Amino acid sequence: MSWQAYVDEHLMCEIEGNHLTAAAIIGHDGSIWAQSASFPQMLKCVCCCLSFGIRI
């Protein structure tokens, strides 16, 4: 199973009437391995900055 499939099929699924609004799997270096379509663009930028040691 790919990381994208895991996000789509396991993290974004509805469980007992509840569901996440966005999800992503992010590496220690800040790289995004998989994400939901609703994952915020701004958060992607924050992940990238943190991976390069930039304080925000």
Shape: globular
Mean pLDDT reading: 82
Low-confidence stretches: none
Classify the beta-strand content into a percent band: 5-15%
What Rg is obtained from the alpha carbons, in whole angstroms? 13 Å
E-strand count: 2
Please, how many helices?
Answer: 2
**Secondary structure: helix percent:** 25-40%
What order do the SSEs take from the amino end to the carboxyl end, as H and E?
HEEH
Q: Which structural class is indicated by helix and strand composition?
A: alpha+beta
| Span between termini | 34 Å
Spatially, the strands of the biggest sheet line up as: 1-2
Instruction: Describe the sheet with the most strands.
Output: 2 strands, antiparallel
Brief summary of the model shown:
The protein has 56 residues and is an alpha+beta fold.
Written description of the protein model:
With 56 residues, the chain is α+β, with helices and mostly antiparallel strands. Helices cover 36% and strands 12% of the residues. The protein has helices at residues 3-11, 41-51, and strands spanning 24-26, 32-35.
Give the tags:
56 residues; alpha+beta; two-stranded antiparallel sheet; globular
Question: What are the SSEs and their pairings?
Answer:
Blueprint: H1 3-11, E1 24-26, E2 32-35, H2 41-51
Antiparallel strand pairs: 1-2
